[in-house]
Write the C-alpha coordinates for this entry.
Amino acid sequence: MIGMLARLEHLSTAVRQKVDDWLINNLLYASGPCLFCDEWTNSGTLVCPHCLTVLPFNFQCCSHCALPLPEGMDMCGRCLTAPPPWSRIVAPFRYAEPVSSLIWQLKYQSQLHVARTLGLLFAAYRQHELSLPDLIMPVPLHEKRLRQRGYNQALELARVLGRVLHLPVDTTSCDRSRETRDQLLLGPRQRELNMRHAFAVVRPLTCCHIAVVDDVLTTGSTAAALVRCLHEHGVERVDVWVMARASKET
Ligand SMILES: [Zn+2]
Ligand SMILES: [Zn+2]
Protein backbone atom coordinates (compact mmCIF):
# COMPACT_ATOMS: atom_id res chain seq x y z
CA MET A 1 0.00 0.00 0.00
CA ILE A 2 2.78 2.42 0.91
CA GLY A 3 4.55 1.59 -2.35
CA MET A 4 1.38 2.39 -4.18
CA LEU A 5 1.19 5.74 -2.44
CA ALA A 6 4.81 6.47 -3.25
CA ARG A 7 4.00 6.03 -6.94
CA LEU A 8 1.26 8.61 -6.54
CA GLU A 9 3.68 11.30 -5.47
CA HIS A 10 3.61 13.05 -8.83
CA LEU A 11 -0.14 13.60 -8.54
CA SER A 12 -1.59 16.81 -7.19
CA THR A 13 -2.41 17.00 -3.50
CA ALA A 14 -6.13 17.19 -4.31
CA VAL A 15 -5.98 13.91 -6.21
CA ARG A 16 -3.87 12.29 -3.52
CA GLN A 17 -6.38 13.39 -0.90
CA LYS A 18 -9.14 11.68 -2.89
CA VAL A 19 -7.03 8.53 -3.10
CA ASP A 20 -6.32 8.79 0.61
CA ASP A 21 -10.04 9.16 1.33
CA TRP A 22 -10.64 5.96 -0.56
CA LEU A 23 -7.87 4.26 1.40
CA ILE A 24 -9.32 5.43 4.70
CA ASN A 25 -12.68 3.98 3.72
CA ASN A 26 -11.46 0.72 2.31
CA LEU A 27 -8.09 -0.11 3.77
CA LEU A 28 -8.20 1.38 7.23
CA TYR A 29 -7.19 -1.90 8.81
CA ALA A 30 -5.17 -3.29 5.92
CA SER A 31 -1.93 -5.22 6.22
CA GLY A 32 1.32 -4.03 4.63
CA PRO A 33 5.00 -3.30 5.27
CA CYS A 34 5.77 -1.80 8.68
CA LEU A 35 6.37 1.96 8.42
CA PHE A 36 9.57 1.68 10.44
CA CYS A 37 11.28 -1.58 9.45
CA ASP A 38 9.48 -2.75 6.28
CA GLU A 39 8.57 -6.15 7.80
CA TRP A 40 5.17 -7.31 6.58
CA THR A 41 2.56 -6.82 9.28
CA ASN A 42 -1.14 -7.56 9.68
CA SER A 43 -1.45 -5.17 12.60
CA GLY A 44 -3.62 -2.71 10.67
CA THR A 45 -1.69 0.24 12.04
CA LEU A 46 1.24 -0.66 9.75
CA VAL A 47 3.53 -0.80 12.76
CA CYS A 48 4.82 -4.32 13.43
CA PRO A 49 4.69 -5.79 16.98
CA HIS A 50 8.44 -5.31 17.43
CA CYS A 51 8.46 -1.63 16.42
CA LEU A 52 5.39 -1.02 18.59
CA THR A 53 7.47 -1.86 21.65
CA VAL A 54 9.97 0.95 20.95
CA LEU A 55 7.44 3.72 20.36
CA PRO A 56 7.67 6.58 22.90
CA PHE A 57 4.30 6.03 24.58
CA ASN A 58 3.26 8.73 27.00
CA PHE A 59 1.05 6.83 29.43
CA GLN A 60 2.35 8.31 32.68
CA CYS A 61 1.68 12.00 32.21
CA CYS A 62 -0.21 15.01 33.53
CA SER A 63 -3.91 14.91 32.59
CA HIS A 64 -3.81 18.63 31.71
CA CYS A 65 -0.51 19.29 29.96
CA ALA A 66 0.58 15.72 29.05
CA LEU A 67 4.13 16.21 30.29
CA PRO A 68 5.61 13.11 31.96
CA LEU A 69 4.78 12.65 35.65
CA PRO A 70 5.86 10.18 38.34
CA GLU A 71 3.54 7.19 38.76
CA GLY A 72 0.43 7.78 40.84
CA MET A 73 0.17 11.51 40.10
CA ASP A 74 -2.59 12.87 37.88
CA MET A 75 -1.69 16.54 37.58
CA CYS A 76 1.61 18.42 37.68
CA GLY A 77 2.30 21.33 40.04
CA ARG A 78 2.32 23.80 37.21
CA CYS A 79 -1.17 22.83 36.03
CA LEU A 80 -2.48 22.81 39.62
CA THR A 81 -1.32 26.43 39.96
CA ALA A 82 -2.25 27.66 36.50
CA PRO A 83 -4.44 25.13 34.66
CA PRO A 84 -4.63 25.38 30.87
CA PRO A 85 -7.99 26.47 29.38
CA TRP A 86 -8.92 23.00 28.13
CA SER A 87 -10.55 20.32 30.29
CA ARG A 88 -8.33 17.42 29.39
CA ILE A 89 -5.54 16.56 27.02
CA VAL A 90 -4.84 13.22 25.36
CA ALA A 91 -1.37 12.79 23.85
CA PRO A 92 -0.47 9.12 23.30
CA PHE A 93 3.19 9.79 22.48
CA ARG A 94 6.11 11.89 23.57
CA TYR A 95 7.55 13.86 20.65
CA ALA A 96 10.55 11.58 20.20
CA GLU A 97 11.85 9.21 17.56
CA PRO A 98 10.48 7.41 15.66
CA VAL A 99 7.09 9.12 16.13
CA SER A 100 8.61 12.59 15.61
CA SER A 101 9.83 11.50 12.16
CA LEU A 102 6.37 10.26 11.24
CA ILE A 103 4.84 13.57 12.27
CA TRP A 104 7.50 15.43 10.30
CA GLN A 105 6.66 13.36 7.21
CA LEU A 106 2.99 14.13 7.63
CA LYS A 107 3.50 17.83 8.25
CA TYR A 108 6.29 18.78 5.87
CA GLN A 109 6.65 15.99 3.31
CA SER A 110 3.05 15.44 2.20
CA GLN A 111 3.10 11.83 3.45
CA LEU A 112 -0.62 11.87 4.15
CA HIS A 113 -0.89 8.11 4.67
CA VAL A 114 1.03 8.54 7.94
CA ALA A 115 -2.10 10.17 9.42
CA ARG A 116 -3.82 6.78 9.27
CA THR A 117 -1.17 5.10 11.37
CA LEU A 118 -1.08 7.91 13.94
CA GLY A 119 -4.88 8.08 14.12
CA LEU A 120 -5.24 4.32 14.50
CA LEU A 121 -2.58 4.19 17.22
CA PHE A 122 -4.29 7.06 19.04
CA ALA A 123 -7.61 5.20 18.99
CA ALA A 124 -6.07 1.81 19.79
CA TYR A 125 -4.18 2.97 22.87
CA ARG A 126 -6.24 5.81 24.27
CA GLN A 127 -9.85 5.11 23.25
CA HIS A 128 -10.70 3.58 26.65
CA GLU A 129 -9.96 6.84 28.45
CA LEU A 130 -11.63 9.21 26.02
CA SER A 131 -14.73 11.04 27.00
CA LEU A 132 -16.23 11.24 23.53
CA PRO A 133 -17.15 14.76 22.43
CA ASP A 134 -20.05 15.88 20.23
CA LEU A 135 -17.57 16.59 17.45
CA ILE A 136 -13.89 16.95 16.74
CA MET A 137 -12.30 20.04 15.24
CA PRO A 138 -8.89 20.09 13.58
CA VAL A 139 -6.86 23.21 14.39
CA PRO A 140 -7.50 25.38 11.31
CA LEU A 141 -4.63 26.52 9.11
CA HIS A 142 -4.60 30.02 7.67
CA GLU A 143 -5.73 30.06 4.03
CA LYS A 144 -2.31 31.21 2.84
CA ARG A 145 -0.51 28.38 4.69
CA LEU A 146 -3.09 25.92 3.40
CA ARG A 147 -2.39 27.04 -0.17
CA GLN A 148 1.37 26.67 0.36
CA ARG A 149 1.19 23.23 1.99
CA GLY A 150 -1.80 21.95 0.05
CA TYR A 151 -3.38 20.26 3.06
CA ASN A 152 -3.92 20.63 6.79
CA GLN A 153 -2.15 17.88 8.72
CA ALA A 154 -4.53 18.32 11.67
CA LEU A 155 -7.49 17.68 9.36
CA GLU A 156 -5.81 14.55 7.99
CA LEU A 157 -5.54 13.24 11.55
CA ALA A 158 -9.08 14.32 12.46
CA ARG A 159 -10.51 12.53 9.44
CA VAL A 160 -9.02 9.24 10.60
CA LEU A 161 -10.10 9.78 14.21
CA GLY A 162 -13.61 10.74 13.07
CA ARG A 163 -13.84 7.57 11.01
CA VAL A 164 -12.49 5.25 13.71
CA LEU A 165 -14.37 6.79 16.63
CA HIS A 166 -17.56 7.55 14.66
CA LEU A 167 -17.45 11.27 15.38
CA PRO A 168 -18.32 14.20 13.11
CA VAL A 169 -15.40 16.37 12.00
CA ASP A 170 -16.14 20.10 11.98
CA THR A 171 -14.02 21.99 9.45
CA THR A 172 -16.30 24.96 8.84
CA SER A 173 -17.25 26.57 12.16
CA CYS A 174 -13.89 28.08 12.91
CA ASP A 175 -11.30 29.92 10.82
CA ARG A 176 -7.73 31.01 11.31
CA SER A 177 -8.61 34.65 10.94
CA ARG A 178 -5.16 36.11 11.25
CA GLU A 179 -1.92 35.00 9.68
CA THR A 180 0.57 34.11 12.40
CA ARG A 181 4.34 33.76 12.32
CA ASP A 182 5.80 30.26 12.37
CA GLN A 183 5.69 29.19 16.02
CA LEU A 184 8.92 27.20 15.56
CA LEU A 185 10.88 30.46 15.52
CA LEU A 186 9.38 31.94 18.69
CA GLY A 187 9.81 31.62 22.43
CA PRO A 188 6.88 30.75 24.75
CA ARG A 189 5.81 34.35 25.50
CA GLN A 190 6.16 35.38 21.85
CA ARG A 191 4.10 32.36 20.82
CA GLU A 192 1.28 33.44 23.09
CA LEU A 193 1.29 36.98 21.67
CA ASN A 194 1.55 35.60 18.15
CA MET A 195 -1.59 33.50 18.63
CA ARG A 196 -3.75 36.21 20.20
CA HIS A 197 -7.01 36.55 18.22
CA ALA A 198 -5.68 34.04 15.68
CA PHE A 199 -9.01 32.18 15.46
CA ALA A 200 -12.59 33.22 14.78
CA VAL A 201 -15.82 31.27 15.05
CA VAL A 202 -17.65 31.91 11.78
CA ARG A 203 -20.77 29.80 12.34
CA PRO A 204 -22.86 29.43 15.50
CA LEU A 205 -21.78 26.47 17.61
CA THR A 206 -24.56 24.55 19.32
CA CYS A 207 -22.56 21.67 20.78
CA CYS A 208 -21.40 21.44 24.39
CA HIS A 209 -18.26 19.34 24.04
CA ILE A 210 -15.54 19.59 21.39
CA ALA A 211 -12.17 17.91 21.07
CA VAL A 212 -9.60 19.98 19.20
CA VAL A 213 -7.19 17.86 17.12
CA ASP A 214 -3.59 18.72 16.27
CA ASP A 215 -0.33 16.90 15.53
CA VAL A 216 1.97 18.16 18.29
CA LEU A 217 1.58 20.26 21.42
CA THR A 218 4.68 22.24 22.40
CA THR A 219 3.94 25.30 24.54
CA GLY A 220 0.21 24.86 23.97
CA SER A 221 -0.29 28.47 22.88
CA THR A 222 -1.99 27.52 19.60
CA ALA A 223 -4.38 25.08 21.26
CA ALA A 224 -5.04 27.52 24.11
CA ALA A 225 -5.99 30.31 21.67
CA LEU A 226 -8.46 28.04 19.87
CA VAL A 227 -9.90 26.63 23.11
CA ARG A 228 -10.45 30.15 24.51
CA CYS A 229 -12.14 31.19 21.29
CA LEU A 230 -14.51 28.18 21.49
CA HIS A 231 -15.30 28.88 25.16
CA GLU A 232 -16.10 32.50 24.28
CA HIS A 233 -18.65 31.15 21.82
CA GLY A 234 -20.44 29.05 24.41
CA VAL A 235 -18.78 25.65 24.11
CA GLU A 236 -18.75 24.34 27.68
CA ARG A 237 -16.07 21.70 27.45
CA VAL A 238 -13.10 21.58 25.11
CA ASP A 239 -10.52 18.79 25.17
CA VAL A 240 -7.27 18.67 23.24
CA TRP A 241 -6.20 15.56 21.32
CA VAL A 242 -2.70 15.61 19.93
CA MET A 243 -0.54 12.79 18.64
CA ALA A 244 2.55 13.83 20.56
CA ARG A 245 3.67 16.07 23.39
CA ALA A 246 6.95 17.91 22.90
CA SER A 247 8.66 18.63 26.20
CA LYS A 248 10.89 21.44 24.97
CA GLU A 249 9.35 24.68 26.16
CA THR A 250 11.33 26.93 23.86
ZN1 LIG B 1 8.58 -2.78 12.26
ZN1 LIG C 1 0.54 19.55 33.80
